[in-house]
Amino acid sequence: MPDTHATVERPANAVAARAEAAYLGLALGDALGATVEFMTPREIQAQHGCHRTIRGGGWLKLKPGAVTDDTTMALALGNAILAAGDIDAHAIGEAFDAWMRAKPVDIGNTVRRGIIEFRRTGRLAAPPSEHDAGNGACMRVLPVALATLGQPEDAVRTACRVQAHLTHHNPLSDAGTETIALMIQDALQGADLDALVHQRLLPLIDAFPIFDPDGKREENPSGFIKDTLRAVFQALLDTDSFETCLIDVVNRGGDADTTGAIAGMLAGALYGPASLPEPWLASLDHGTRRACAIQSQALLAQACGNTTPTL
């Protein structure tokens, strides 16, 4: 397991700096969105006006700067990758099991069911299911994107499925999760928004038109990945900064901690560390901030030594 109490060394290059911004972006989006999770846009407007402050509360009654399962499960996944030295399904299952036994503040039904089945049988992949097209595999994919940076696209997609199928085994979940991981990798290496659209979003829409963000504004997005990612893509396309992207997406309500987390990964990688609002960073739980910073660099350092993901 990585030593999250070690001194945080600042990233030495642009890729490392963007990787840290992506991980902090995940946590910031999670913390910002958790306050308004399961609220409608009208309810958010009545209670907060435009919600733009990390203030805690919400249905989970969080302290300001606290995060939910989106961030803590990603950190558990990253710890498993670092401990195993690879994308190893059994190591990931053990890490998820330990994470659930530690009583996270929240856990989705599909995630809970998959982990319990792993605990009971040792099964490394849930059976394919049309009902498992949720966003739980996507919300935690960032460590895989970092650990497989520089690997062939097929290897990245395989790694995404190794971690995803422990709880979510569904073609929509796979397609959305893999696209987000590849978009993050492209952004880390300097791709702009236009490139992300043409290289990743348009091919996804060609294969799965249900992800097309054109049309009616996706408000009150559900936990299904099609709704989550339409809201994320719309927010990313309709704004031009990290802060405006996250404010846009969380004020849509619904599964706002997860839309915030996924948008935060992408926008952090795309816009870089200077784009992260200092008041938000100052409000983020200190331990979480350190863990995200340290793990982002450890995963990148391991990336060059990764081999083919193992089932």
What does this structure look like?
This protein has helices spanning 14-34, 41-48, 69-84, 89-101, 109-121, 136-139, 142-147, 153-164, 171-188, 193-207, 225-238, 242-250, 256-271, 278-283, 286-303. It is mainly alpha-helical. It has 15 helices and no strands. Residues 1-8 and 307-311 have low confidence and may be disordered. Helices cover 61% and strands 0% of the residues. The chain has a single domain (14-303), classed as ADP-ribosylglycohydrolase fold.
Class, according to the CATH hierarchy?
Answer: Mainly Alpha
> What is the CATH superfamily label?
ADP-ribosylation/Crystallin J1
| Unreliable stretches covering 5 or more consecutive residues | 1-8, 307-311
β content, as a range? under 5%
Structural class: mainly alpha
Taking all Cα atoms into account, the compactness measure Rg is 17 Å
Overall shape = globular
First-to-last CA distance = 20 Å
Instruction: Count every beta strand, where a strand is a DSSP E run of 2 or more residues.
Output: 0
Q: Determine the CATH topology.
A: ADP-ribosylglycohydrolase fold
**What count of structural domains?**
1
- Mean pLDDT rating: 94
Count of discrete alpha- or pi-helical segments spanning 4 or more residues: 15
Which percent bin holds the helix content? 55-70%
